[in-house]
């Protein structure tokens, strides 16, 4: 068993300061009494549940630059101020992103071959249904299949789509679920396996989302993006009444994202074609009926609101000032934005309130910290880590003095360890710092990288950035980007554990003699979020 595993798992005698280490590893000052104080405060007087409910139930969805996102930012800033945190800022990005967008109302029905409500939800920045004069209206239209595999297929649909409700993709191949979807990592998986991106890997065949498209190259992400852009141009020219897309998940779940026309839908002044995600079970039914050549009709009334008052979103930051090394900073953060069909509970209200609660713990306990501790709640992550990247551009001069950035963005599961992001010099440091939480399930520092969230923005500019490993629970099979992502899916006790772990990690890094080791000079290419 390698050192990074043996230290945390084997029966080592643990004292207030860890000293039983191989000669080549520098002993960290690990204060077990402080760890216990943090655990006691969190388990007995936690505010996490209260914050989680307010964020998800009262504020709700937080699509970047939407009214919900702006309301959430104001609430976080007010909360930080009430705790006495310093330098509380709601800070605009350095560049424009998109007009704001929100749903006003949606209703839909299948009219033919039988009558039934249409189980669907609009994609973000979808246009509303309008009549010929541009007024809000209910649209009734025939359903037809739009089956294109490359641009040569466009010719067979030219001049035939106007006024139709088109089925954009073949139905997902989803059968019954024969395995339990909720899960925790076993000790063997954590120590001897490869959790990969533990938040979104499912053991349920056919139920997890499809693997990410490879980057670049012929047939890679670049080719797929170019093809999708060509499809968007073709559809805008042909003017179908409505674009229907089948959900990639089963059991009535909508896997929501952005409009098929991408940035054009967000940035332009036109009314994009209405674009709905339809529950797999209904979408498959409509598709099979259309394949038979039988008449199929639906009606939809979708009203949305575009907000053009500002195209510049904001991030929220706040600090606890340090003592003798106050000009150096330890950062924690989570993306605060969400998609819109649920209320952004596990993605990523969970990570956001964990980080907020970690700051509350540090402030409430008045723990002495040499370095300044700063929290960042980022917008624009779902569209490509844009908010954290904007913040880093605005604060470029500060980067050499940021010791580390810690991130939580993998659902509601408890923390089980942390990725070293190929920064092997950081491994023995984390192994020692996390030792007091072995009894709470934190057992591994994993060699390798994980992607798709905001720590990559920091790694890309040379700041040590790390993302915790979490139990998947049902993140990759039920809640990730879905309409089921609500407070009911949160495991509050797991999130309390996470807040305590983060708080102690930050406390320990803030009190080290040296900054955390910098990442390798050649950072790996960032995976597509």
Describe it for me?
The chain has two domains: 35-97 and 312-423 and 448-510, Aminopeptidase, CATH 3.40.630.10; 101-307, Glucose Oxidase, domain 1 (3-Layer(bba) Sandwich), CATH 3.50.30. The chain has 14 helices and 16 strands. It has helices at residues 3-9, 32-45, 48-59, 67-83, 187-192, 221-238, 262-267, 280-291, 345-364, 386-394, 427-433, 455-460, 475-479, 492-510; strands spanning 86-92, 100-112, 116-117, 120-122, 139-145, 165-167, 242-246, 275-278, 297-307, 314-320, 325-335, 371-378, 402-407, 415-419, 444-446, 465-470. A hairpin with a 3-residue loop joins strand 2 and strand 3. Helix 1 runs parallel beside helix 11 (427-433), helix 2 packs antiparallel against helix 14 and helix 9 (345-364) crosses helix 14 (492-510). The two termini are 33 Å apart. The model is unreliable at 1-20 and 197-219 (pLDDT under 50).
